[in-house]
């Protein structure tokens, strides 16, 4: 019996926990279905780009802030969205950083940027349909839940 082999696309992304006085900076993005998604600033790495460089670039376009002194917090990796059209092998890094500048997003998908008290962050996260959307997968939010509770782990396997 031969084993079926498959090649999964690799998705590399990096997001940054920007913290000010017990608040976490979240971006509001409009999803394809018209709903609003609250997420961490950051996003996909481009070909040949390090995860740290992707974090700096994406935070700038999504928030207008310049981040410096990136510090690694956690890595989340594994197969994501298996059996859907967005199936991939995910490598997602989370950092914290110093930041400066004014909130001024230039990413057309970002409809807002807001500081949210730690205790209110999880209430803004929407899980569930459509299932092929990674941002609504509860596993993606485990590192953030732990970060907000001060229980930081460096590695998460999906």
- What assembly state would you assign to the polypeptide chains in this entry? single chain
What is the helix tally? 3
What best-fitting shape do the alpha-carbon axes yield? globular
DSSP strand tally: 9
CATH architecture, by name, is Alpha-Beta Complex
As a percent range, the share of helical residues equals 10-25%
What does this structure look like?
This protein is an alpha+beta fold and 158 residues long. It has a single domain, classed as Nucleoside Triphosphate Pyrophosphohydrolase (Alpha-Beta Complex). Helices cover 20% and strands 41% of the residues. It contains three helices and nine strands, in the order βββββαβββααβ. Strands 5-1-7-6-9 form a five-stranded mixed beta sheet, sandwiched between helices. Pfam families: NUDIX (PF00293). GO terms for molecular function: hydrolase activity. Its EC number is 3.6.-.-.
List the topology elements:
Elements: E1 10-17, E2 19-20, E3 23-30, E4 36-39, E5 42-44, H1 51-63, E6 66-80, E7 88-100, E8 110-117, H2 118-124, H3 138-148, E9 155-157
Parallel strand pairs: 1-7, 6-9
Antiparallel strand pairs: 1-5, 2-3, 3-4, 3-8, 6-7
